[in-house]
Amino acid sequence: SKSLEETLAGVIPEKQEQLKNLRLNHGGEKLGDVKVENVIGGMRGLKAMLWHCSALDPNTGIRFHGHTIPDCQKLLPPAPGGKEIIAESMLWLLLTGEVPSPAQVRDLSRQLAENGDLPKKIADIVDAFPRDLHPMTQLSMGVAAMNFESEFAAAYEKGIKKTEYWKYAFNDSMKLIARLPALAARIYKNAYHPDTPLPPINKDLDLVGNYSNMLGYGDNEGMTEYLRLYIALHGDHEGGNVSAHTAHLVGSALSDPYLSYAAALCGLAGPLHGLANQEVLRWMLAMQNEIGSGTEVTPEQIKDYLWKTLKSGSVVPGYGHGVLRDPDPRFIALQDFCDKRPELESSPIIQLVKKTYQVAPGVLREHGKTKNPNPNVDATSGCLLYHYGLTEFKYYTVIFGVSRALGCLSQLVWDRALGLPLERPKSVTMDEIEALIKKA
Ligand code: CMX
User: Fold this and answer.
1) How confident is the model at residue 399 (pLDDT cuts 50, 70, 90)?
2) Looking at ligand 1, which residue's alpha carbon is closest to its atom 37?
3) Three-state helix/strand/coil letters over the chain
4) Residue 423 maps to a domain
């Protein structure tokens, strides 16, 4: 059967042709207007960038090459003995638009495991970081440092044809994805468990099976399956979100995949984006501390706590979204996971998430500010990690960072395969805006 690279090479020409046709025959057509509110409002709603791997519908949520999350749960091969989607299956779908066979997924797992060890140089750099450096800072620095052996950068320096770019971007991306679990696990060990040795990579395990094992959860089937699902679901969320947009922007300068993804990770580390799962847990624990979390907690107590948060000027973490206007299907998939796992039935923190979900949309509607009073995926993701015993919440966004590489790097390969140019929007000053309005 075909490898990932062969499958990708097979689908690229058709998409190159599609882009050529769009440029030649429809280049002058309009996709919308640019309003002043778009320019001063964080470019919200502007259809101004190309993203190939996934699309986000405001109501139905994310689709990966047209496949919804429930579709993916039906179609994508899990790990041997597991039930949840795994990173390799999602990566294959994101990159090629095709559903892999179980044998193709197994081959990819083995290929990633064979390339999963950190170069000594990188391990030494990471080991020298002060233990209190934020784990996301460490992850971004570790990823950036790995560019010392970027095939893309070396080939560019030597001089290659533009049509060849994607092959080098692909090789770098695969190597980076393969090594992320070892890098992320090393950061975890150094920060929180310096005396526990890291187990070696098991060539028979999938990427996240190995990650779970290196984090110390190899024997915890619930946690390993949760990590698989979490990492597959967080892989991509179309192009406009901060991490995806950053990888795409930095990559457009032909910075190599390591540098592009390191930049994306700095964006993921912001509290309005990837750090939200850490913020949710902090907020949930503070609520639990104040009102408890057992069956005795009433909806009124949670409502009061929500109002207290809002009146203090804070946002309710885990609720609202820049694009989505209905409950996030990723949140729903995680809730389904909670409902089918007996160990989560009596988990105080998971029960508190559920109870909060029942009242928070009503409170946020009454508050009247957010365009979407529904939960996003972060409303529950960190709480599940906490339940399974990973209580160091500063680390949570690192797991998100291992996941988001799947989408950001798939798109980066496509950016080069499609020959997309340097991204360079035109900025305007406020005086220029006023002058343009007068002229219109
Ligand atoms: N609690 C309270 N107020 C909220 C809110 C929430 N959860 N979500 C939005 N608002 C407020 C905004 O702060 C904004 O107020 P101002 O006008 O005073 O600035 C107003 O409602 C309108 O915001 P919006 O258009 O609905 O949302 P944005 O696109 O500006 O922001 C997001 C989206 C996610 C940053 C915002 O909803 C938020 O801060 N949520 C909490 C943090 C969070 O859960 N982030 C995770 C996002 C998931 C992801 O990255 O994938």
Assistant:
1) very high
2) 320
3) CCCHHHHHHHHHHHHHHHHHHHHHHHCCCCCCCCCHHHHHCCCCCCCCCCCCCEEEECCCEEEECCECHHHHHHHCCECCCCCCECHHHHHHHHHHCCCCCHHHHHHHHHHHHHCCCCCHHHHHHHHHCCCCCCHHHHHHHHHHHHHHHCHHHHHHHHCCCHHHHHHHHHHHHHHHHHHHHHHHHHHHHHHHCCCCCCCCCCCCCCHHHHHHHHHCCCCCHHHHHHHHHHHHHCCCCCCCCHHHHHHHHHHHCCCCHHHHHHHHHHHHCCCCCCCHHHHHHHHHHHHHHHHCCCCCCCHHHHHHHHHHHHHCCCCCCCECCCCCCCCCHHHHHHHHHHHHCHHHHCCHHHHHHHHHHHHHHHHHHHHCCCCCCCECCHHHHHHHHHHCCCCCHHHHHHHHHHHHHHHHHHHHHHHHHCCCCCCCCCCCCHHHHHHHHHHC
4) no
Ligand 1 pocket check for 236: Cβ under 6 Å: no
Q: Does the beta carbon of 35 sit less than 6 angstroms from any atom of ligand 1?
A: no
Q: Is 365 in the pocket of ligand 1 (CB under 6 A)?
A: no
Structurally, the chain folds into a number of domains equal to: 1
pTM for this model (two decimals): 0.95
Reported as a single tens digit per residue, the pLDDT across 39-93 is 999 999 999 999 999 999 999 999 999 999 999 999 999 999 999 999 999 999 9
Asked if residue 53 belongs to a domain, the reply is no
pLDDT at 293 exceeding the cut of 80:
no
Mean pLDDT of 312-341: 94
CATH number of the CATH domain containing 345: 1.10.230.10
Q: Is residue 425 part of a domain?
A: no
Which residue segment(s) compose the domain that 337 sits in? Answer: 276-387
Is the pLDDT confidence value at 415 over 90?
yes
Mutate to test the pocket of ligand 1, among 56, 315, 359 (most ligand atoms within 8 A of CB): 315
**Is 367 labeled as catalytic in the residue annotation?**
no
325 close to ligand 1 (CB < 6 Angstrom): no
Domain assignment of residue 346, yes or no: yes
In this prediction, residue 377 has a pLDDT band, given cuts at 50, 70 and 90, of very high
Q: Tell me which residue has its CA closest to atom 29 in ligand 1.
A: 322
